[in-house]
Amino acid sequence: MPVSGSGNDGGDSTPFPGRGAFVLGKTHPAVTVLGERLVAHGFGYFYKEGPGPRFTEADRSATAAFQRAQGWSGSDADGYPGPTTWSRLMAPAGR
Questions:
Q1: Largest alpha-carbon pair distance within the chain?
Q2: Residue 72 contacts by C-beta under 8 Å, 6 or more apart in sequence?
Q3: pTM (two decimals)
Q4: Tens-digit pLDDT profile for residues 57-93
Q5: Nearest residue to 63 (alpha-carbon basis) of 48, 53, 47
Q6: Cα atoms in the 13 Å half-sphere on the side-chain side of 77
Q7: How far apart are CA 63 and CA 48, in angstroms?
Q8: Which residues are CB-neighbours of 94 under 8 A, at least 6 positions away?
Q9: Are 53 and 84 in contact (CB under 8 A)?
C-alpha cells in the first residue's frame, strides 16, 4: 500500500505504520507523511530542507514540539510518534 501525504491542511487518512518506521536514520515513506503533517500543523521550522523519507533529529524535534503542544510531557513527548500522535497529526490542521 503506497504511503503519501495530503499536501494540504485537510488532513490525511494514512494509517499508522507502526513505531518501527520512526527510528533515527531509518528511511520509510511514512516519515515523509509525518513531516508533511508536522509542517501543516505549524512545526515546519525544524526543517532546513523540508520533510523527507529518512527519520532525522529534525523530525524527532518537530514531533516532540507537536507533542508538547498537545499538553503532553515526559515520555509522552519524546519525539517518537505513536498511534495517538499520528492520529492527531492526520487530523486537519488547526484542530
A1: 34
A2: none
A3: 0.88
A4: 999 999 999 999 999 999 999 999 999 999 999 999 8
A5: 47
A6: 12
A7: 15
A8: 9
A9: no
